[in-house]
Structure formats: C-alpha cells, structure tokens
Amino acid sequence: MLWLSKEETDFYFTNRVCLAVGVVGLISALTIFFCTGFNENAFEKSICFSNDCIVEFSRTFQSALIVLKGSGAIIIGVLTLGSFRVASKSYLSNKNAYNANSHIAHLNVFMSYLNNEVAKKDKLNITTFDPLKWYNSIYPHSKHGKLEASNDYLSKLKSLQEELDKSSNYFSQPSPKIFQHNDHQDRIMAALAPIGIKLNRLPPLDFYSVEDQAFSVIDNINHSFCHIDSDTKILRDRAYK
Q1: Residue 1 lies in a domain
Q2: Is the pLDDT of residue 170 over 60?
Q3: How many domains does the chain divide into?
C-alpha cells in the first residue's frame, strides 16, 4: 500500500469495504433463502410467474430480500462517503498546490519589485534587505493563500513611527543635548531589524541620507503591496533632519 497515493488508498479501502459487505450480505441472504425454502417446502412448488406467485415468493423469502436490500443500501452509502472523501482530498490537494504556486509567484514579484526600488537608490544596497524576512513579516500566511498585510507587520511600522516621532520630539526640545545621534541610530536600527532591514552606524548626515532612502522604499512597498494610501504615509516627515 506504500506505493499508492492517499486518493488511491481511499479508493482501494472503499472497494474492499463494499466487497466485504456484498459478500457477507450475499452469503447471509442465500443462507436465509435456502433455509426458508427447505423449511417451508417452497422448492417443491411448481415454477410460476403469475402475479400471485410473485407476491407469494416475496412474502416467503422476505427476510432474504431485506438482507439483500440492506446490503445494497450499505454499499451505496459506503460508495457515496468514499467518493465524497476522495473528492474532498482532491480539492484540498489542488487548493494547496494553487496556494503554493500563488505564494511563490507573489514572492517573486515582491523580490523583483524590491530589487528595482533599491537599484534606484544610490545610498542603499540589496544586501541591506532580507527580502524573505520582510515578505514573511507582511504575509505570514501567504502559503495558505492569505495575502493581506498582517497586524504584526502594521504594529512594527507603528513602532518604527513612534521611534521617529520620539527623535523629532527630542530634537524640537529647547536643549539640543536631548537629541543624541547615536541613540537615534540605535533605536532606528532596532526598529527596522524585525522587518528585515539592517542599517549600519554611520556619521549623522550619512545615516539620515540612508534612512531617508530606506523609508522611501518602505513607503513604496507599503503602497504597492499593503494597500496603504500613498497620501497617508506611515513614515511621516521628521524634524531632526
């Protein structure tokens, strides 16, 4: 049985059950038929095909006929359930295959789009990004056909925005010492890491240029793949620039 697929195994099992029910039902019906015939001397009567004879035959061998009918009903029921089971498994198998193909195709589109976006930026390199990690962060259930931005990803964007707002607030304070470049870079790098973007520590002006381009890529991805309106960017303007 190891060489059979799941559908073939179910089909084989269903046929075996139907065969067993049929054999048991037939043997039982024949046993009842002969026992009844000998006990009631039915076999000693002349062959007759009139309506009264047929009615009498049905009455005499009613138990045997009931067993045959019951066996037939069970076989039909088993075949129906078996067919439904095979059809259901076939549907699920086809659906899983479709979801897998859809996942791969969508992932390839995402990676191609990301590569094109990064190629437009002179301060970025594709090695800065982990496309698969970013994609899985947005679509954790894409293998099951669900292509909607996850709440977890939106929460990560919100955390990033909170860090940017924090830096802007620090920068806007009367004392400029509150805003520290190294602290800002650490917080932004930590907020970007969960979605698969790794920035390195740089001189302040260089880092701001890099994060500018990284945020632009994020906004474009969000607009194109997460259905976030381009007029409502999650990553808003920053006062510390």
Answers
A1: no
A2: yes
A3: 2
Please list the alpha-helical segments (H only) found in the chain: 6-39, 51-60, 62-119, 131-138, 151-172, 181-192, 204-225
Same domain, residue pair 10 and 51: yes
Q: Which residues pair with 197 in a beta bridge?
A: 129
Whole-structure pTM value: 0.66
Per-residue pLDDT tens digits for 44-100: 777 777 787 788 888 888 888 888 888 888 888 888 887 787 777 777 778 888 888
In a domain, 115, yes or no: no
Smallest CA-to-CA distance from 179 within 239, 92, 99 is with 239
Q: What is the pLDDT of residues 189-238, one digit of tens each?
A: 999 999 999 999 999 899 999 999 999 999 999 989 988 765 556 566 67
- Give residue-wise pLDDT tens across range 106-122: 999 999 999 999 999 99
Q: Are 88 and 140 within one domain?
A: no
- Four-CA torsion 42, 46, 50, 56, nearest 10 degrees: -10
Token readout for 19 is 């065969």
Burial classification of residue 217, based on how many CB atoms lie within 10 Å of its CB (0-12 exposed, 13-18 middle, 19 or more buried): buried
In one-letter notation, the amino acid at residue 208 is: Y
Q: How many CB atoms lie within 10 A of CB 207?
A: 20
Q: What angle do helix axes 62-119 and 51-60 make, rounded to 10 degrees?
A: 80
Place of tokens 């094109």: 116
Instruction: Judge residue 79's burial from the number of C-beta atoms within 10 Å of its C-beta, 0-12 exposed, 13-18 middle, 19 or more buried.
Output: middle
| Single-letter amino acid code for the residue at 157 | L
The answer to whether residues 41 and 82 belong to one domain is: yes
Range of the domain at 184: 120-225
Report the pLDDT value the prediction gives residue 195, as an integer from 0 to 100.
Answer: 93
